[in-house]
């Protein structure tokens, strides 16, 4: 039985590739997509989610989420993803309509209608997930797991202490990590090892199919920022890790921990405080992902591209 999932994302190049991977994977059933503000404004991330799903020929509801964090002003990342949030490839205008429901309404409806527990896969700020948990606490029992991209056991990327998704809405992240739901945290510890090289991009492009070519062109733009600003030896494919862990957990390694979020520190706000010891009886409900087999991760993505291009699923 495929795992039913709902993706909450802020496309964004790596979110877009995570959507491609989720849509292609026979191990998953992508029931719905909701959008958050982060990489770009909610208008742009919502259009981008519709654009990617339209390109894939996916008939999946897309609902707009919160336009800003619970308590803070929105920060966006045009220097990473461009003015559109998906700069690089020239993509057809979206044909998939925007749902008339909000992200919380669509997520609640989808969870209620699912015969089995749904896995949430947030790859942006956690505002929508927090809002769902606050407004529909009764649905917690129908959420099997939250597999998210965010945080880090050590360090940050937007500040020395904080990773971008958590920093955008620390209060929302605090609510999510403390909801008592099993969480898989794909933070920078693993995503900075989930590196895509230019050789990998040329491997995708060489397939020649529409989806493979589109992903290669997304990577062409995404690589630019990371080569100019980091010396990682490649571009970290952050968001696809949260999807790949559901498809093939065996290519990852993790440790169980209690995680909470700093919401007040002048220098440390947005830091995920990872307690592998479970001090003072803290519940260790989070699988903190720390490493992966990079080659198998790239192969997983490559298989997804070949599958979609062979199906001719791209519209
Ligand atoms: O820090 C990386 C995360 O921030 C990724 O999800 C990326 O898409 C941005 O949202
Ligand atoms: Ca993202």
Descriptive overview:
The mean pLDDT is 96. The longest helix is centred in the C-terminal third of the chain and has 20 residues, at 210-229. Helix 1 (13-24) links the parallel strand 1 and strand 2. This protein has helices at 13-24, 42-56, 78-81, 103-113, 127-135, 164-168, 170-177, 188-191, 198-205, 210-229, 238-247, 294-311; strands at 3-9, 28-35, 62-64, 118-122, 143-149, 183-186, 195-196, 235-236, 252-261, 272-275, 286-292. By secondary structure, the protein is of the alpha/beta class. Strands 3-2-1-4-5-6-11-9-10 form a 9-stranded mixed sheet, with helices on both faces. It has 12 helices and 11 strands. The two termini are 27 Å apart. It has a single domain, classed as Ribonucleoside hydrolase-like (Inosine-uridine Nucleoside N-ribohydrolase, Chain A, Alpha-Beta Complex), CATH 3.90.245. It binds alpha-D-ribofuranose and calcium ion.
What about the largest sheet?
A: 9 strands, mixed
- Alpha-carbon distance between the termini? 27 Å
Indicate the radius of gyration in whole angstroms.
18 Å
**Assembly level:** single chain
Q: Percent range for helical residues?
A: 25-40%
Q: Into how many domains do the coordinates divide?
A: 1
Give a count of the beta strands, DSSP E runs of length 2 or more. Answer: 11
The ordered string of helix (H) and strand (E) elements is: EHEHEHHEHEHHEHEHHEHEEEH
Bound molecules: alpha-D-ribofuranose, calcium ion
- What global shape is seen? globular
Q: CATH topology, anyone? A: Inosine-uridine Nucleoside N-ribohydrolase, Chain A
- Main structural class: alpha/beta
